[in-house]
Amino acid sequence: MSTTYSELRAQLASLTTEAFRPELAEIDRLSTLEIARTMNGEDRSVPAAVARRLPEIAAAIDATAERMARGGRLIYLGAGTAGRLGVLDASECPPTFNTDPSQVVGLIAGGPSAMVQAVEGAEDSKELAAADLDALGVGPDDTVVGISASGRTPYAIGAVEHARAAGALTIGLSCNEDSALAAAAEHGIEVVAGPELLTGSTRLKAGTAQKLVLNMISTITMIRLGKTYGNLMVDVRASNEKLRARSRRIVALATGAPDEQIEAALTAAGGEVKNAILIILADVDGPTAAQRLKDSRGHLRAALHPTP
To answer: Which segments constitute the SIS domain (predicted)?
Structure first.
């Protein structure tokens, strides 16, 4: 057995996410319902673990929104489950908030094929993370989020180190205390939900915790950037029938206007929900609505009440 393997084994043994739970050693002898109840009980600890890190999460979001308001990007990097969760969160931003696909980016160690099939060894390379970021031309206006349940994944740590050297804002999201990833980032977020039901299976509670935090980072950042009006997704991209119906419902909820007025406003706005709402509420035409939103940097509330 190599020294490297021995050291890695010792590292894993020290991590909360890898801890063995003797009380669950015979879980396979329980009924399916009993196992389901046990899992459900375990999952209840995750929101509480996230709640303990809300101040750190909020500070990271404020810093992210500030950079994105200057034209920067939000870039997630991780390996395995962590990387897949980052790609998932990034891929949902264009239809939800009408962002350009290049504005929120998810990178997974090993490339797109690693989304569906493990790429062995990719997570062990800091150099691979640096090359992935260099391909994007990461810079001072960008935010880079390294994601790793263990907090020791070289790909995630390498991403944060390389991005920080390039002047980017860095966030390290892990599920163990005193992690190397959090230490390497400007904003370390350590959500410790405890040992997993299956020893070391960090797609469970750790994965749920990571998804909750990533949801917060992207959603609240977009709220800060004016991508919503109240709790309405006024920048939604109507790319299919369901979303076209949702667009009309959003305009109706925001304005209380009848269907005929909503259809006329959406036509005048070229299908843009935010513009259509402004046309109705401010009683302006399409070009005026577009100019007001441009002047307010896309914030509908500000466009409704422009300052002289």
So the answer is: 64-227
Return the bridge partners of 172, or none. Answer: 146, 188
Rounded to whole angstroms, what are the CA distances from 217 to 165, 194, 260? 22, 22, 37
Of 18, 42, 123, 196, which one is the catalytic site residue? 123
Report the alpha-carbon distance of residue 156 to residue 193 in Å, rounded: 20
Coil, strand or helix: which one is 146? strand
- Phi then psi dihedrals of residue 65, to 5 deg: -60, -40
* Angle separating helix axes 80-97 and 205-224, nearest 10 degrees: 30
277: closest CA among 244, 247, 255, 302?
A: 255
Please name the amino acid found at residue 300.
Answer: L
pTM for the complete prediction? Answer: 0.90
120's tokens: 């062995």
Q: At 68, which amino acid appears?
A: M
What length is written for the chain?
A: 308
> What confidence tens digit (pLDDT) does each residue in 126-163 have?
999 999 999 999 999 999 999 999 999 999 999 999 99
pLDDT at position 37 is 96
Residue corresponding to tokens 């259509």: 276
Q: Helices marked H in 229-272 — which ranges?
A: 241-255, 259-268
- Give backbone dihedrals phi and psi of 78, rounded to 5 degrees, phi first: -170, 170
The pLDDT score that the predictor gives to residue 57 is 98
- Please identify every stretch of the chain with a pLDDT value under 70, giving residue numbers as ranges: 1-5, 8-13, 120, 308
User: Is 92 an annotated catalytic residue?
Assistant: yes
d(CA 50, CA 39): 18
* Closest C-alpha to 159, from 140, 178, 184: 184
Please state the φ and ψ torsions of residue 130, each to the nearest 5 degrees.
-60, -40
Identify whether the C-beta of residue 104 lies closer than 8 Å to the C-beta of residue 90: yes
